[in-house]
Amino acid sequence: MEDRERQALIDFVLTVQQVLNFIFRRLIEFPTVRQVPHVQEAWEEVQPKFEQLVGAIQSREYDRNLINAGLSGAQLRFKLALFDKAKRAFDQGAQGPWTGMMGRWISVKIKKLLAQLLKAINLLLGSIAHAISVAEPIKEAKEGIEQLLDLDEPEP
User: Fold this and answer.
1) pLDDT of 27 strictly over 70
2) In the beta sheet, which residues pair with residue 106?
3) Topology of the domain comprising 3-151
4) Phi, psi (5° rounding) for residue 67?
5) What are the structural domain ranges in the chain?
C-alpha cells in the first residue's frame, strides 16, 4: 500500500469522525432521539475507536488486508470520489434548519442528504471494517445513526 493511499484512508477516518459527531449532535436535539436509552453513552464509547483505527492504518500491519478489501488503487480512488461528492452535497444542504414544516421532525431534504452521505461512508467503512476489526464498532455506530433517523418519523 502506498503512503498516499494510507494517508487518504486516515483522512477519511478523521473526516468520518467529524461528520458523524456533527450529525449526532444535531440528531440528539430531536425528542424521539433523546428518548432512546443509552444513546449518548454508546456514542461516547465509540470515540476512542477512531484513534485506534488511525493507529492500525498507520502501523502498516493491515496493508495486505486493506488491499484485499479493495482499498488501494482505482478502487480506493473511486470510493473516495463517491464519498467526497456526497459530503459536498451534504455540506451545502445541511447548513440550514433540519426540521420540516411542523418543526418537530427532520426534513425530507436533510434525510435524503444524510442517507446519501451515510451510504457513501458505508462503502469505505465496510471495507475498512472487513480489513481491520476495530472499525466494526464505528460502522455499527453509523448504522445506529441510520436507525435513529428512522425513529424520527411523525406518528400517523
Assistant:
1) yes
2) 99
3) I/LWEQ domain (1.20.1410)
4) -65, -45
5) 3-151
